[in-house]
Amino acid sequence: MWSRYVALGDSFTEGLMDDTASDGRYVGWADRVAATLARTSPGLEYANLAVRGKLIGQVVDEQVPRACDLRPDLVTLAAGVNDALRRSYDPHACATHVENAVRQLRGTGADVVLFAFGDPSRRSAVMASVSSRIAAANSATKAIAQRYGCSVVDFWGCAVFDDDRFWDEDRLHLSPAGHELAARAALATLGIGDDSWRTPGRPPDPPGPLVRARGHAAWAGKHLGPWLARRMRGRSSGDGITAKRPHWGPPPPDAYAVGPV
Fold first, then answer.
1. How many CB atoms lie under 10 A from the CB of residue 204?
2. CATH code of residue 134
3. For residues 231 and 256, what is the distance between their CA atoms, to the nearest angstrom?
4. How many domains does the chain have?
5. pLDDT at position 261, please?
6. Angle, CA of 30, 86 and 236, to the nearest 5°
7. pLDDT over 70, % of the chain
8. 211: pLDDT strictly greater than 50
9. Whole-angstrom Cα distance, residue 92 to residue 87?
10. Would residue 127 count as lying in a domain?
11. Containing structural domain, residue 85
């Protein structure tokens, strides 16, 4: 098993919209993975360098060198969705960033886990235009993983994530239940647990058209508008935010572990 685990990425790995710990920081799937690994690896050290809003190039420039200095034996790297949401998206540049990151991380001897993200068009017609970008990024990620001997947590086509209960009201970040599901997926990829996480439960009855319309309007005013305003000002949700676990330390309490898996 592993003794030093570091998580890299953006808001997904920082844990936005999951429960908050005693220090006020979000927990997130990576924290839940660390807590679970600690059950069979006493003394596990954990760091989480992820910061919301980061682009893949920023992750590579800011987080990967720090991760290499920490000399982990397990790294998770999940980033690129923020790039795909931008009009200036360059798939070749993003793939190059991922490969550069993986080359450096694997050069330390660490096991590296990458992510193939889900199809946003399954839940939102507004996001359908991004689907081809995510699909292309996933293909590049899988090719890089094969080339460098990495594992991939593959969310593409997973019907289980069609359930709104796994998503926050902002429709972009996972809910606490979604973070737990992502943790189970990552652990299964690491050989802990199985693929039962992929089996969808019975979703709740869909809301009527009036309720949906009101929901769309509320979402646009509370979440879409502010996001667009930040883009126009050239601002990021990560401005002024620092990594929540920049140094080695113990994993979160066992209460956040995913189990049994």
1. 9
2. 3.40.50.1110
3. 34
4. 1
5. 42
6. 60
7. 84
8. no
9. 14
10. yes
11. 4-201+243-256
